[in-house]
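Entry 14. Structure prediction run on the chain below.
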Amino acid sequence: MTAAVQSPQTMPVWDIFVRIFHWLLVAAIAFAWWSGEQGGEWMEWHMRAGYLVLGLVIFRLLWGFAGSFHARFSSFVRSPPETLRYTRSLLQRREPHYAGHNPLGGWAVLLLLLFCVLQAGSGLFANDDIMTEGPLASLVGYDLSIEITRWHKLLFNALLALVGLHLAGVIFHQIFRREKLVQAMFSGRKALTQAVDRAPAMAQKNLRWRGIFLVAIAGLLVWGLISL
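Output returned:
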């Protein structure tokens, strides 16, 4: 008889708020890109997608301090020397395994969040000089608003480049390292391995109400911004 093949034991890594944030951000950026290319009446929806991106990033920044273990910046933002050591070990194919973000991935997350803030934030002051302007464009004057619009477009190209690098990293680990990163961002669980960033015992708590509260805070902050 052939012995049954046991599935590897898994452990919770990404909480429900991280997963919803991730996929909503993907959808919001994609839709903002598409609607911006369409122009015309779609620009109203383009702006709404920008508001959503801004709200999502504000929530993620808050969740980086108040969320579950692997969602916190303290669990994945490493010092430059440690990141350099990880990069060297990666090139030598001897890198340690991380349940959450590895040091390079952690810095990539920060860069993506930064560029999302810059992109969505600059859109608040943008002006296409035709029929659409951001809710805060009048606060900076016409000339500066036009210049911010130029930067808004340039920043999006930089954001797309960062997204491309992120996807390349995911593909590398998914295919060549056989880590089920995409599946984990749906299920929230990853295979139990000798990860160097294992969550402490009982670290995964019911954070539902804390998350809902921070979602409301992020929404109120965006509403307050666009209502100035």
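The domain at 12-188+206-226 is CATH 1.20.950 (Fumarate Reductase Cytochrome B subunit).
Filed with the rest of this week's runs.
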